[in-house]
Queue: 2 jobs
Job 1
Amino acid sequence: MLSSYLTMAAILFCIGLYGALAKRNAVVVLLCIELMLNAVNLNLIAFSKYGVVPSLTGQIFSLFTITVAAAEVAVGIAILIALFRSRGTVEIDEFDEMRR
Amino acid sequence: MFNIEVTGEFVAFFVFAVIIISGAVLMVSFTKVVHMVISLAAVFLGLAGMFVLLEAEFVAFVQVLIYAGAVSILMVFGIMMTKHQAMQDEPKRPVHEALSAIAALCLFGILFYAIRITELSVPEQFQAGEDNTMEIGKLLYTGYVIPFELVSVLLTVAFIGAIVIAKKEAD
Amino acid sequence: MDSIYSQYAWLIPLFPLVAFLIITAFGRSLRATSIMVALTGSLIALMLSILVLFEQMGSGEEFSERFTWMTIGNVQLSMGIEVTHLTSLMLVVVTLVSFLVNLYSMGYMKDDERISVFYGYIALFTFSMLGLVLSENLLTMYVFWELVGVCSFLLVGFWYTKPEARAAAKKAFIVTRIGDVGLLIAILLLFWYMPDHALDFASIKNVFDGQTGTIAEGITTLIAILIFVGAVGKSGQFPLHVWLPDAMEGPTPISALIHAATMVAAGVFLVARTYDIFEASQAAMNTVAYVGAFTAIFAATIGIAQNDIKRILAYSTVSQLGYMMMALGLGSLTGGIFHLFTHAFFKALLFLGAGSIIHAVHTQNIQEMGGLGSKMKITAWTFGIGALALSGIPPFSGFWSKDAILSTALDHNPLLFVVGLVAAFFTALYMARLFFLVFTGESRSKAHAHESPAVMTVPLIVLAVLAVLAGFVELPWSGLGFLGGWLLPGEEVVHHGSELVMVISTAVGALGIYLGWLIYVKGTISRDVVSSRVPGLVKLLERKYYMDELYHAVIVVPLRGIGQALQAVDDYIIDGVVRLTGAAAVWTGRAGIRMQNGQVQTYGLITAIGLIVLIVVIVGRRFW
């Protein structure tokens, strides 16, 4: 059963990866990053039940992850809004400041 | 792997998996951002269901509260406050997208292969305790009290930072 | 009497070498001085050589001295000198002709601005030739052998602004190289098979003279023939003769020194020096004899149809060298060396005379000369003496040496005797043609001819005297064969004088001259009597039996083809790889520029791909 959950998490992670790499709207990219984080959560919890040493630690960890993800989304959206104010767009391929 | 007996857990897993995958696929293929957020919410809910299946009721509860509730609403706000109607998704970068798809597929292939060849030992029966929430609470306030406090600081800093960043520049 | 001077024979080549070094170092600014330096160097060498010769003619013992050059494992390579009767004779021939040519060039090359370079080359050549003669073993001899080849190349191409001279120099170098490879292989074979890897002539004599079966007969024949191949290249024997006539593009004194008297005779000298190897193999001897005889008649017939005065003499040289080879092949070492000795003088004389004529009329075409006899008396007389000597008219030197060869041929091989006679007839005919066309009749030249200066005529006179007298060192009567007895002291002097041969050869020579006189002076026989009846034959002779064309078609063109194919390989494959490498770097750079576009997603994509590649490489290693 564990491998089913792991496969499930892998599928989710890869869809998130594709979206994060290919989508042009910054909000969508943020959404996809959330997907990837959730895939990690799924892994953690699956291991907490079916892992070699089952324990609650996995669940604790996933709680932390959810907390950090929430903070990340808040800051991310704030940055996006600031960017939108200064540049007038959230199309990610409009930003190439790293080249300069 | 596929010759497992059809149990209740398996059926439930299958249903949730369908919800999650179709939600995720729809999310990356929709053109309107609002639709994407809704399908994302479906994914989060499906995941919460899976957590229940994995006997992590508290985490499932938190998942629904934070992800399906707070994060989705935050995203909607983000969409509202930025320009989103110009989501014409003509593939401006076909090579880039194709390569991204290939990279994602390859990664999945590797992960799948790794999962398949790994000998996953059958664990002893996991005793989550009568009250899952109580156990987590005990652990959080004993063994993990310092990380817990740190996370609370992190959250505070993040929210203050978010407000500062998103605030209109007062000149 | 001990050998006193012979011990110092190693000094002889040293003087020309010093002269060469001085001229090369300072010659550019000091024209007159460099001439004097070269003259002095060759004069001292000549004096020493004469002293050595007299000592050797007296009771002086043969002398050899050597030191170890290098030690490779157990093998020692040595360098050294050896003075025998043969080498002392060669020393005098080389230094004498060299000195006279030095003298002559003062007049002939007077107006050339690179005269000091010219003298430097001559000095270097003299050094190398003397080194070749004195060498005590085959290896050092080979070194000098190549060195004279280089000097020949430099001097033939001396007027390098002329394309013909450049082509001739390259041809001379490359064609002789074919022979040199043969000689090198022969030396390697000898090195392999000789006891103690000895390469010195004394050991070779010991091993082959006894013929104790130290070296198998087949190998002996192979070595002998390969040595002969080297001699064929250097001495212009068929089929490697083609370079010698072309080498006439060089200055005329050079033709006299290198391409008549000394370097081309080096092949004959080489065979004579390693004669014991040849004597051990009858097959090799026959090869030498037949190749020599064929060359003699082959070149003589070409000589009839040529119009360039130097080319006629060049073919004559080839023909006479063929004679020498034939003599050696027939077992007459004395005959070959004797002819070499006399030929060196009269052929140098003829070339220097030709140079005097060219100097006067500024053309080399004998059809444009004529009537020069009255204007250039000394040249005409001396040239006449040379021509008579070459034609084999008694009592000039050429008669005696040719007679020695012909009588040997009659004894051993009547067929070759006939060939020799025919060649002698043609020789007389083309010399008569040359002489009469140049010196008698109406003047067909626009140039105002006049006698050459004394520095040019004095060598002519000296050589003319020698051309008359040189034959008397070996007379075909009992007790008068000094040279033979002296060269081969141990062996019984075979007296081979035969009045019949003398009469026949004289008659043939005289007949040739008479025929020439009839055709070119009297006009009794029309000049085009042959060409009108068999035009193809004359054409064939004029084009030298199409040898050059044949070589061009058979060797040069395919080689060029291969060369071009290899060039194409270089251009397209090797250069292509190089260009591809460069282009790959450029492409990589361009791709890098495109990747570095500042967009986070691109970087993320590259990171993901990199991660995948990393996993595949690290994990995939398990499956290899």
Job 2
Amino acid sequence: MRYNRWFTPWVLVIPALTWLLVFNLWPSINTVILSFTNARPIGGGHFVGLKNFETLLHDEQLRWALLNSVIYMVVCLPFLTVLPLLLAVLVEKKLPGITFFRTAFYTPVVASAVVVALIWQWILDDRGLVNGLAEKLGVISGPLPFLSDQWLLLLSAISLTIWKGLGYYMIIYLAALGNVGRELHEAAAVDGAGPFRRFVHITIPGVRGTMILISILISVSALRVFSELFILSGGKGGPGGRDSSVVMLIQQYSQGFEGNLGYASALSIVLFFVTVVPMLVLARLNRRGAEA
Amino acid sequence: MRRRRLAPVAALAAAALTLAGCGLGSDDSGSGGAKPTVDANAKVTGEVSFQTWALKPKFTSYVEGVIKAFEAKYPGTHVTWLDQPGDGYDKKVLSQASAGQLPDVTNLPPDFALPLAKQNMLLDVAAADPKLNDEYVEGGVQAYQYQGMSGTFGYPWYLNTDIDYWNATKFAAAGLDVKNPPKTFDELLAAAKVMHDKTGGKEYLMSRLPGIGDFTNAGIKILSDDGKKFTFNTPEAAALLDKYRDAYKAGYMPRDILTNEYLGNSKLFTQNKVAWTTGGGNAIQDFQKDNPSLKGKVVPSPALDTPPLYVQGLSVSAKTKNQAAAIALARFVTNAENQAAFAKIVNIFPSTKASAQDPYFSKSDGTPESDAKVLAFQSLAKAKNLQPPVISGATNDFIGQQISLAISGKISSQAALDAAVAKANQLLTQ
């Protein structure tokens, strides 16, 4: 009786392969092809060569969106890589009532992004909680335009992303911290190393791989940000659309009966390359670090 | 060996490339629309499908009653009723149209019907029904006639418009007379200044950015006659934006309106944060239901300038296999009798000329709710489509973004309008 027939591996991978082909490969190829057309949701379209990409070069909103994405990534990356690690180290300790803090830190993750953004909108508006408190305390003389100034709106969205992401990455770090040998900490403590030195020389190297993974996840999600900016800017990307992200532009161009699928596909390709570059850089850094 | 390995890859690539390009196809948009092959006297029988937008479960018995009456009037007919949820209706219709499965009779507002008519997916119902222009109000019929195309691509079903609502308490606090509210935009600006100055900047009257409708009201031409170019970047439009920018800078409007979605105006009114909003004839009931403290404080008045006309209609699919029954059903559902019955269970207004004399719509019982309904009904007589249906969602967004940039004072009004027109033209021709 033979169990290892040649097709057995294929049978096992066919479900995953089918999924990959239908929902990943085919849409990807379709997007590339559509980016060279002026296709609409109904009525089709024609090949227009590189016209969509030429338009991209002169699209002022895309320039703002790319700048926003880069700022988003640059600000989110250090905060969301380091702060959740510190939180994880804090809540890892077995102290009475620590479960409450673990749950509290994780709560923003399970809350819907839309609900959270709406609450933040209420907190940050001209007569919202933050401005009201600050004015009462005499810190500011007039309300700060968190939701109507281009840069403050971006900063508000970034703060929201960081606040919402802390708990998620904290959980990943908690799992990684469990793999850092307790005996290393004990040995270092015996040798006279304080908590800070143990954190720098034992904890950080111990979770280095996880930090790289988290950095990649943060970079990708920061570059693909949508909900926070969309909700806080009332779905319009702020004055002049200058607080749009690339995903918001894709949504804007592809919406409705007259959606411009060709241009939206060209934007998707730009987003793909913008997302892949930092991913490759971080992966390379990881490899170099591992070899060293 | 190498060839054997390459073969499946090549086959896969070929299959992928064949499958890809989904969304491409014949771009056979026409200018004449699809013409019916039957006339109004054709025999009505057989199956026909009918799609409505979010009428279940609130109006199930009404719609079922109309369908039953239709089937009784035309023995041998059978209507299959589909009702789609309110959210995502455009996406549903889009997927039906893309798959060639549009129901025989579909509820489509004019801006949904336009792209379908361009692709010859809707019948020119006026070609089969010469009485259309005589029986339905002009604005309703015109809503389904598009620049650069010949034909009428839907029966107007029901209409609505906006009137103004004022907060009497806030008016009194500012020393303004709510019984004599602003009647023009300039009076509105003057009242906004009074409200700001008298309350130390704590109360707002206005909370709305201008849009295409305001340009139309100011007599600015939005679109060229052939419908191929936007033309609203005029000095008059810039002057209008300048007035809004100055009012915004002076603090007469909440600063966050630059990022508020369209409904922000009525939301703020409901939250008792601003003293003016626009809304349909039944909006007063919603304000008072959502915020009972507003009861007795909301005063309606006719809209400033020309009120907008909102139209819902029934279009007939060009692919219907039963044109006679589909046209008859669309006409039956939208006839004066059925529309009047519908308008009495929900606050909408009939699009039939015969309903104009119905005292139910034209006489108030003296309550603010009834006053609002009568005002809205009277406003319909001069209401117009203020925004051309060719302005798609994306175009509207880009125009709104440039307007908010101008109001924020970051760029001049003229520069914002030029940028908006350039982008709108690009989206129109792409």
